[in-house]
Amino acid sequence: MNLKHLRYFVTVAELGSFTAAAEQLHLAQPAVSMAIQKLERSLSVQLFHRHERQISLTDEGNELLILAKRILMSADEATLAMKELSGLQRGEVRIGIPGMLGSYYFPPILMAFRHQHPALQLSVIEAGTRKLQQMLINGEIDIGVIVEDTPSIELDTLPFLREQMMVVMASDHPLATKTSIDIDDLSEEELVLFKEGYFHREVIDKLLLQHGIKPHIGFETNLIPLIKQIVKQGFGISTLLEMVIKDEPALIARPFSEPVLLDLCIAWRKNGYLSKANRCFIDFVAAQKTQP
User: Are 124 and 281 in contact (CB under 8 A)?
Assistant: First the structure.
């Protein structure tokens, strides 16, 4: 089985077009078609249904796509490991971070790391915890930030931060007079929440479900500045990490009566190869971690 042909196959399958795959691979379209035909002959299967203007994977093609991605990921890791043994480094850290932490916790860490290691390239992707877990497993990113209570047997984790979830409201909101907020207090309030798939949305959904509360969600958005503006104008309350509203006098943060603590972790693929750059970044974050 030819690795180059497998790469062509994965590209065609993901783009759904021989022409688009050829453009991305910087090859002539007939060359890509011939490579796929050779791969089909070597495996004695048909990988694509070829229609007049479109293609689709056969059952065999769908099965090979899963296996091909694993094979290519392992091949890339083996190549990287051998290069590093000969003194070369990839020099890139691909990290996925949820938006709240990416905006308010990680900027000084990323800048300090870059200052210490100016030759290394940082590639930061913003996504929710669930999406980041899947991207790690698929090899789309090297490192991700997830919540410890949503682990995967396919990932290794390192706790680095414990933060308290706070109820956030306008300074003149009736709940602002309380020193802490009962979960039942949320039952009558219009809520401004992140979309599903983000860690703090999952925490709130779980809390409300445990108490049999059906939430009144007025706004769903991943834009933190928009969340803060909506809350400031009194159109709802939200739940955020306390770090988000520092230097925001128009907003008040109150803890839950039963504190809601989040243990955040750096995660990477179990048994996957970590480059020197990635190991260096994990060690750097571990050195900064906040003790519970």
Answer: no
Under-70 pLDDT residues of the chain: 80-81, 83-91, 150-151, 289-292
For residue range 35-67, list pLDDT tens digits in order: 999 899 999 999 999 887 789 999 999 999 988
Spatial separation of the C-alpha atoms in residues 245 and 161, rounded to whole Å: 18
Q: Which residue has the tokens 């899947």?
A: 134
Residues 140 and 279 in one domain: yes
Please provide residue 83's backbone torsions phi and psi, each rounded to the nearest 5 degrees.
-65, -40
If asked whether residues 12 and 99 sit together in one domain, one would say: no
Question: 37 and 173: one domain?
Answer: no
Distant-in-sequence, close-in-space partners of 276: CB < 8 Å, separation ≥ 6? 84, 89, 90
CATH number at residue 77: 1.10.10.10
Q: Say yes or no: 142 and 284 in one domain.
A: yes
Domain that holds residue 173: 162-262
DSSP 78-119: HHHHHHHHTT----EEEEEE-HHHHHHTHHHHHHHHHHH-TT
Q: Model pTM?
A: 0.66
Question: How many separate domains does the chain show?
Answer: 3
pLDDT digits (tens, 9 = 90+) for 89-128: 556 788 999 888 888 889 999 999 988 888 788 899 998 8
